[in-house]
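Is this the right way to post structure tokens for a design question? Let me know if I should format differently. Anyway, here goes:
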């Protein structure tokens, strides 16, 4: 859940984060179907393993594209890319759902809707 005081919510970009989570979940579900079919738990799927994996990976890639579109309105830097490139950032700083300011330029948007 994204807090109302987070920078994602205040800059109206929380929907991109939610779409990313949803698409990654759907993609993971398709990949899980492949595994379940291999161990004979699921038998009713008429798509091949290749088709299921392409569909699953497509959803995951689209989800990540939505995440990469999250950016600071002031400095225009992509937050998701910055978090992936910076391995020294703590876990709390990586969580965009609770960030109250831009992790790069410190921009704070006071227009809470």
């Amino acid at each position: 859940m994204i807090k109302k005081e987070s920078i994602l919510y205040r800059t109206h970009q929380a929907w991109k984060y939610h779409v990313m989570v949803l698409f990654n979940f759907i993609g993971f579900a398709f990949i899980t179907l492949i595994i379940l079919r291999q161990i004979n738990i699921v038998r009713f799927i008429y798509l091949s393993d290749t088709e299921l994996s392409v569909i699953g990976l497509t959803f995951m890639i689209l989800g990540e594209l939505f995440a990469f579109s999250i950016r600071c309105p002031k400095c225009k830097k992509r937050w998701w890319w910055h978090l992936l490139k910076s391995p020294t950032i703590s876990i709390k700083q990586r969580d965009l759902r609770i960030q109250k300011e831009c992790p790069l330029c410190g921009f704070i948007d006071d227009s809470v809707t």
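Format looks fine. Someone answered above. Worth noting: The chain has five helices and no strands. Residues 7-94 form one domain.
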